[in-house]
Design brief:
The protein is α/β, with parallel strands linked by helices. The protein has two domains: about 280 residues, Aldehyde Dehydrogenase, Chain A, domain 1; about 190 residues, Aldehyde Dehydrogenase, Chain A, domain 2 (3-Layer(aba) Sandwich). The strands form six sheets. The protein has a seven-stranded mixed β-sheet, sandwiched between helices. The chain has a six-stranded mixed β-sheet with strand order 9-8-7-10-11-21, with helices on both faces. A hairpin with a 7-residue loop joins strand 5 and strand 6. Helix 2 packs antiparallel against helix 5. The radius of gyration is 23 Å and the shape is globular. About 50% of the residues are buried.
């Protein structure tokens, strides 16, 4: 596929130029479906990170000084380019990540929505005129960009998460240095091509590939970096927060999840099973807001398990870009494949039962057969950890009070789902669940105009919506007298 071959293309974008790393370092990007080489990217380090930060620092005054309309127009031009190329970039994303082709194309189009949303949002009024208490005095607030923003993104939704961060930062008037995951960097490169071709001034957004710890530490120590936006594990988020504290860099963190999925006896059962399939198996189960722990009220437990298992048994696993498109592709790499296999085997050794059949998977590639487990020990690692793969766990419960306690008995609080047809219960449960994102009879809650973020150990701040713009701006208070 020549259209998707980036093997000879420079992939570091610094000061408006595509450039190779100074030391000539390269890193291979492989297809998790078969291990084949997709591309080789330039892999930078401290020198490239410093050059990118300097470029962003130099570009900040003029970018921050542009009228909001000018920044909005550029983001809109980039969104149109990204929309035109969604099929091609989606194919590339499927190759590098193992994401099913329709989902990969849909992710690129979701990235388009973030560019459009923040282009529109930045033109709305900012700041506030306070009501005066004395005739000769007026007070108001101003919103101004923080400075250089460091954007660190994962491999599971590389394009949409990158767009969610940089669109907000650029709209706010910040300049950006981004580091995507080395496991899925290629579609992000294409996003930056769209920004470049849309007329992005040199240095306003910079893309650096390289070792995560080295790049992050270098940039967090740079005096121009004023905000860090990170999506990833809670463990790494804690490390970034400690580093950010050294210079009081504002942290915006979307971290790990362990989402409960609750089905009450009054729910529409077929709708709940359909929602469970989407909430669990989207992106091959590799989503931080994926349903992780299923709780089903006792009177319908057996029937839910039977229906859920039947749907899982019917799944087809295979190459995510080949017709007919399968229901599941591979997980990201062999490390994740082996971790999931180990977790399931350990749970079985502790008494858990797999109630699904052995779905056939290709011999080559990092594939994991989907599975549904019951009778798990609550102490098992599979019941305690974020699964991040196509393995579902189901527990029965007796009362609403019991299931709320079990759902909240977790240090994470990113997403939660529940199914019921009782209006009074809907409000009660939504208010009681300790999660930043809640789906009521809704398995796919994410939209560009709604806030994305978690409670407890699942992060700080919000992305998307008008709140996502606020995260990249400082509030300045002005008091005037005459």
């Amino acid at each position: 596929m020549a259209d998707h071959d980036l093997s000879s293309t420079a992939s570091l974008y610094i000061a408006g130029e595509w450039c190779p790393p100074a030391e000539g370092r390269r890193r291979e990007v492989c297809n998790p479906a078969n291990g084949s080489l997709v591309a080789t990217i330039g892999y930078g380090g401290r020198a490239e990170a410093l050059a990118a930060a300097a470029a962003a620092q130099d570009a900040f005054p003029s970018w921050a000084g542009l009228p909001a309309r000018a920044r909005a127009d550029l983001l809109l031009r980039a969104s149109l380019l990204l929309q035109e190329r969604a099929e091609r970039i989606g194919y590339l994303l499927a190759l590098e990540s193992g994401k099913r082709l329709p989902e990969a194309v849909a992710e690129v189009r979701f990235a388009v929505e973030y560019l459009r949303w923040f282009a529109e949002q930045v033109r709305r009024p900012a700041g506030e005129l306070l009501r005066p208490e004395t005739p000769q005095r007026r007070q108001l607030t101003l919103r101004q960009p923080c400075g250089v923003a460091l954007c660190l993104t994962p491999w599971n939704f590389p394009v949409s998460i990158q767009a969610r961060k940089i669109a907000a930062a650029l709209a706010a008037g910040c300049t950006v240095v981004s580091r995507p995951s080395e496991k899925a960097p290629l579609a992000v490169i294409e996003l930056f091509r769209c920004l470049h071709e849309a007329g992005l001034p040199p240095g306003v957004a910079n893309l650096v590939h390289g070792p995560a710890a080295e790049i992050t530490e270098t940039l967090l120590q740079h005096p121009s970096v004023r905000v860090v936006s990170f999506t990833g594990s809670t463990e790494v988020g804690r490390q970034i927060m400690r580093q950010a504290a050294e210079r009081i860099v504002r942290p915006l963190l979307e971290l790990g999840g362990n989402a409960p999925f609750i089905v009450f006896a009054d729910a529409d059962l077929e709708r709940a099973v359909e929602g469970a399939m989407l909430a669990k198996f989207r992106n091959n189960g590799q989503s931080c807001i994926a349903a992780n722990r299923f709780f089903v009220e006792a009177p319908i437990f057996a029937e839910f398990v039977e229906r859920f298992a039947a749907r899982i048994n019917a799944m087809r696993v295979g190459n995510p870009v080949q017709e007919p498109i399968p229901d599941l592709g591979p997980v990201i790499d062999e490390q994740r494949q082996h971790a999931l296999t180990r977790l399931v085997e350990e749970a079985q050794a502790q008494g858990a039962r797999v109630v699904t059949e052995a779905v056939a998977v290709p011999a080559q590639g990092s594939f994991v057969a989907p599975a549904l487990l019951v009778d798990l020990s609550v102490e098992s690692a599979l019941a305690q950890e974020e699964v991040f793969g196509p393995v579902a766990l189901v527990f029965p419960f007796e009362t609403e009070e019991e299931v709320i306690g079990r759902a909240n008995a977790c240090e994470m609080g990113l997403a939660a789902y529940f199914y019921t047809r009782q209006l009074e219960r809907a409000w009660r449960v939504a208010e009681a669940l300790e999660a930043g994102i809640i789906g009521l009879n809704s398995p796919l809650p994410s939209v560009a105009y709604a806030p994305m973020g978690g409670l407890k150990q699942s992060g700080l701040g919000r992305e998307g919506s008008h709140e996502g713009l606020d995260e990249f701006q400082e509030v300045k208070y002005l008091s005037c007298e005459w």
